[in-house]
Amino acid sequence: MNTLAFYITSHGHGHAARSCDLLAALHRHVPNLPLIVVSTVEPAFLRSRLAGIPYRQRRVSLDVGLVQLDSIRGNPEATLGSALRLMQNRSRLVKQEVRFLREEQIAMVVSDIPSLPFEAAARERIPAIGVGNFSWNWIYADYVQTDPRWRPVIQGFEEGYAKADLLIRLPFHEPMTAFRTFRDVPLFSRPGRNRRVELAARSGCSPATTWVLISVSSLDWTGEALARLSAMTDFSFWTVQPLQWDRPGFHSAEREIFPYADVLASCDVVLTKPGYGIVSECVVNCKPMVYARREGFAETPILIEGIEHHLRHASISLADLYSGHVEPALRAALHAAAPERRMDAGGDDQAANLILSAMARRAAAE
């Protein structure tokens, strides 16, 4: 059977998490489907999310996402420099991917959501499908209002996306008009398994406290802020490695032993920023969320609307978050009213069927 190449942006774990959900669905449907993951996402992250699924990782990055100071704050100027270099190397990178597609006899390209793979696939007449809830040209459009140097970057992404055969569009989406056609699907995420007893036994954390999952890749807390959190003895703060703080009241779960979804299912409330992955995970696991609004992220209002409709929640100011004054927001989320709407899941299986059907049509035409 020919191989599927799955491209994942190197921007954040949310894209990688939902991509792994889709890869797992593809494996369930066709266990012998050869998979190559093209991304610089940490190998340990992929191993934890794709346990028991055979795949190869090719560590190549084909977009820049948004350069960030930490999980909350972005750096548009640094992003522009990286994006301009990407566009300057566009022709060379597309040729590089064409060689890869030929050498590996790739039968299908899926991308979440670099645009260059679509250009390479079009040259080789290989079907190519996008997966996402926003595109980079839309994210960058906000910046062009104050800096026209963004125009060629936006145009380059639009040209690449226009070459995709189909977009599998996820909930909490922008219109994504750069794509010619799309199919909407429900959430990919699936509930984790509550392993609170195991986590407590391994860590020594009291299961009687309120467990807070800090769901970010990095957060620049000062010693004073960490001391303030440690003094909240009714609460226990959890992270998933490699993020960890060696402080009283803080605990970290080993990703290889406790998958992220299981840690989330074992906690009482999540402290995070609005991101597609964590909003989806909280929805399917029915977990309340405390979120800090991110500035300079175009998708933030869309995700906050989703949070307000589908989750028990509370917001926290950046000043309170970075100073460690989080207790009022945590208690507010825990006591918030039940959400007014429910969301369907199962989008991973629907998306897998769309991809496999496209592969089957190509095989039949050969």
Could you please describe the fold and organization of this structure?
This protein is 43% helix and 16% strand. It has two domains: 3-188 and 346-365, Rossmann fold; 196-334, 3-Layer(aba) Sandwich (Rossmann fold), CATH 3.40.50.2000. The two termini are 13 Å apart. The model has no long low-confidence stretch (mean pLDDT 94). With 366 residues, the protein is α/β, with parallel strands linked by helices. Helix 1 (12-29) crosses helix 15 (347-365) and helix 5 packs across helix 7 (151-161). The chain has helices at 12-29, 43-49, 76-88, 90-103, 116-124, 136-144, 151-161, 196-203, 223-230, 260-266, 276-285, 300-310, 318-323, 327-334, 347-365; strands at 3-8, 35-38, 56-58, 106-112, 128-132, 166-169, 182-184, 210-215, 235-240, 250-253, 269-272, 289-292, 313-316.
Radius of gyration: 21 Å
Q: Spans with pLDDT under 50 lasting ≥5 residues?
A: none
CATH architectural designation of the largest domain = 3-Layer(aba) Sandwich
- Secondary-structure element string: EHEHEHHEHEHHEEHEHEEHEHEHEHHH
**How many H/I helices?**
15
Short description, anyone?
Helix content is 43%, strand content 16%. The chain is an alpha/beta fold and 366 residues long. The mean pLDDT is 94.
What are the key terms here?
globular; single chain; 366 residues; 15 helices; Rossmann fold; 13 strands; 6-stranded parallel β-sheet; alpha/beta; 7-stranded parallel β-sheet; 2 domains
Which SSEs are present, and which pair or pack?
Elements: E1 3-8, H1 12-29, E2 35-38, H2 43-49, E3 56-58, H3 76-88, H4 90-103, E4 106-112, H5 116-124, E5 128-132, H6 136-144, H7 151-161, E6 166-169, E7 182-184, H8 196-203, E8 210-215, H9 223-230, E9 235-240, E10 250-253, H10 260-266, E11 269-272, H11 276-285, E12 289-292, H12 300-310, E13 313-316, H13 318-323, H14 327-334, H15 347-365
Parallel strand pairs: 1-2, 1-4, 2-3, 4-5, 5-6, 6-7, 8-9, 8-11, 9-10, 11-12, 12-13
Helix pairs in contact: 1-15, 4-5, 5-7, 6-7
